Prior knowledge:
Elements: H1 15-40, E1 46-53, E2 60-61, E3 67-68, H2 71-79, H3 85-96, E4 100-107, E5 117-124, E6 130-140, E7 144-155, H4 159-166, E8 172-174, E9 181-184, E10 189-196, E11 200-209
Antiparallel strand pairs: 1-4, 2-3, 4-5, 5-6, 6-7, 7-11, 8-9, 9-10, 10-11
Helix pairs in contact: 2-3
Transmembrane segments: 16-36
Keywords: Membrane, Transmembrane, Transmembrane helix
Amino acid sequence: MLRNEPIHPLLVSRKPAYLIASLVVIVGLVGLAFGYSTLTGRPAPMPVAAAGAQPGDDSVRSASSVDLRNTISRQASEWGVRTCLPQIALVSDFLTVNRSYAALSQRVDGAVDAEAFTSTIAARDPQGIETVSTFVSTPVGESGCNSSYQAVASFAVSCEVAHREYFPSFNEPLSFSDRVRAYTNGQESHLFLLPIGDIGCTAVKTQTLY
Length: 210
């Protein structure tokens, strides 16, 4: 199940960190499209940007009685997604509620309801704290759906402080890496903390819904 514990960092203000983060995001998006086409032999997913969307969007109800409270779930519904629409609405609400945001959603031409739906979200909360998140929802079997999201942010504090102040419920350490600390909250959610020299800490929070 989704937890309401946000991944709310204080962004690192040093320019090198911003440049590195920007390059990672750009390379990741290019790699996503190129890699998909190369590995599957299908055309790359078609992107749709929903820039400048604001929290508090008017809610609409889909034909399957799912409340669509943001541009991401509404886009999925307009494309013809049905099986995974409830999970898409749930995850996208969690990642955008009370935030201004921009989203880049992707699909593959053809049987949309039988393919994965993905979206990348850049969000800012009322305090100016920003996160970049990605999630994917994939139909499984005749009527099932699996969804997973990953939220990434940088803290201008040590990983010890970030863990204590922002993620107190992640209190079960995992054996993972000498440099990257890993934790779980015991509810299909994981937290990874990577120190950035003397700058601060990068946090990656992941969760899967079945």
